[in-house]
Write a structure and sequence with these properties.
The protein contains 20 helices and no strands. The chain is an all-alpha fold. α6 packs across α13 and α12 runs antiparallel to α19. The longest helix has about 60 residues, at about 380-440.
């Protein structure tokens, strides 16, 4: 309840504090919804962010040229933005939109595959109760090291493309190493069980390679789509395009869980048996697919940056002033400590960090209990992975359908109300799930609790992918380059636990 409450409060706080820069002011046709917020003085007092000037406030020019409306595009972009059709993308914008959507598809495909695999490895061998322990003592320290390393690399490499590749490639190197070296030699590498040593902690230490796979996959969950993809999207997408592009990026992207579930189920079905050796062959097939996806991401990243550079060259030839970003890159970059001090002054980053923390806390509390029920229902690794594949397909189909309406929801109801759908829907489904488990198997069968928990997880994920993520990412666009790189990395990676 505490996390859900602050999730809602910080979402409202971000909407009020950023209303001017993000264009989140309520449209005339939404005055009734705006009056609801104004009539809640308790929420206004808690948020404490209603001091933003109302009307007449001069909108500051964004620090990055790419986030402003370019000359010659305002009429076309406005026409597309006012278009009530579900696909408000112009013909000239479509190549960049298609490339970014396909890139998001590959990122989410890899995320879905490694998520299902890590859960299968850890839950089947160590139990669901080991996940919070592993996240606290394994994922959190590694996330902190990742932030420090990423910040250092951002200072070393002046090229954003180099930083992208250096961050991306080590993940796939590890997944390949695990599938072809670590798992086949697990009996030799893993520690032998000793008498009198039981519990989640000892299981995680004994199966250390599975724990390492879990940690890497948790880091990928925050370094993949939230950090690498959205950093690229924020760099090449204008603010006028973001309101139309961002909700629709995930239309293609959310097909990835469907494809991932189908591929995973098909590969598991090819197993001659359900033993660990056959499961190892499945991991090798999945690793090859990941390598192909990685190559696709690299090609698409190069393509979208080429399109963005071509637009900048066209502007330069037409007499447009040089992008301020070029001036920023010539300055001495601040240290990590200086960046943390400066970024901590941003109310927008503080609100986004709190929102992400609250979301992860809420989903963690519900998922751990749900996965514990899953382990009782599916004791075999292959059966567990097959169920997770089906679950991913359900998430993908549901998210795809919701994503078709997401752009209209954000445009018609505004950023504030679209962002609030995720915490409110999560809370509405969490209550019956916890209640069904609390009353016990006698009154409510385990299968019913599993169904309610699965529904809660599906709703939590599709509202996050379709509404919460696009709303959160659009809030980064008006911020400065330091906030886009180090601030975003801190919010999306460090606060994942």
């Amino acid at each position: 309840v505490f996390c859900f409450f602050f999730f809602v409060v910080q979402t409202l706080g971000l909407s009020f504090s950023s209303a001017s820069s993000l264009g989140l002011a309520v449209a005339p046709r939404q005055q009734q919804l705006h009056l609801i917020t104004k009539s809640c003085p308790i929420i206004a007092d808690v948020v404490g962010l209603l001091r933003t000037p109302r009307g007449g406030a001069t909108r500051q020019k964004p620090a990055i040229q790419l986030t402003s409306v370019r000359p010659g595009e305002s009429t076309e972009a406005t026409a597309a933005g006012n278009n009530k059709h579900w696909f408000p993308i112009t013909k000239s914008e479509f190549p960049q939109f298609a490339a970014m959507s396909l890139m998001m598809f590959l990122f989410i495909y890899i995320f879905t595959t490694v998520r299902d695999t890590k859960d299968t490895l850890v839950v089947s061998n160590c139990g669901a109760e080991a996940i919070p322990f592993l996240k606290l003592y394994g994922v959190m320290p590694c996330a902190m090291l990742f932030i420090v390393g990423y910040s250092k690399l951002s200072n070393i490499f002046s090229s954003k493309s180099t930083l992208f590749y250096v961050t991306l490639l080590p993940f796939f190197a590890f997944y390949t190493l695990f599938a072809f070296v670590l798992y086949p030699n697990r009996d030799t590498l893993h520690l032998l069980p000793t008498s009198g040593t039981t519990g989640a902690a000892m299981s995680l230490i004994r199966y250390w390679s599975f724990s390492l796979y879990f940690i890497a996959s948790e880091l990928w969950a925050s370094a993949g789509v939230p950090l690498l993809f959205w950093t690229c999207a924020n760099d090449v997408t204008m603010l006028s395009e973001a309101k139309r592009f961002y909700p629709l990026f995930a239309v293609v992207g959310n097909l990835a869980p469907i494809v991932s579930g189908k591929v995973m189920s098909a590969i598991v079905a090819l197993q001659a048996s359900s033993d660990d050796a056959a499961f190892g062959q499945t991991l090798k097939y999945l690793a090859l697919v990941k390598i192909a996806a990685c190559l696709g991401i690299c090609v698409l990243y190069r393509l979208v940056n080429s399109m963005a550079n071509a637009k900048l060259s066209l502007e330069s030839s037409s007499g447009t002033k040089k992008s301020p970003e070029a001036k920023i890159n010539t300055k001495k970059k601040p240290t990590l400590r200086e960046s943390i001090v400066e970024l901590s002054k941003s109310s927008e980053l503080r609100s986004m960090a709190t929102m992400v923390i609250c979301y992860n806390a809420c989903i963690e509390l519900t998922e751990v209990l749900w996965k514990a029920i899953l382990r009782k229902r599916f004791t075999n690794k292959s059966d567990y992975m097959s169920f997770m594949g089906s679950f991913s397909q359900i998430v993908g189909i549901s998210a795809f359908v919701l994503q078709l309406f997401a752009s209209g929801i954000i445009q018609n109801f505004g950023w504030r109300w679209a962002a609030l759908i995720t915490p409110l829907s999560m809370a509405a489904m969490a209550v019956p799930f916890f209640a069904s488990v609390a009353v016990g198997d006698v009154k409510i069968p385990l299968a019913t609790a599993l169904l309610i928990g699965t529904s809660q997880n599906v709703i939590s994920k599709i509202t996050k992918y379709s509404l919460f993520d696009p709303c959160k990412e659009s809030a980064y666009i008006p911020l400065g380059p330091e906030a886009k790189v180090k601030g975003k990395a801190a919010v999306d990676v460090l606060v994942l636990v």
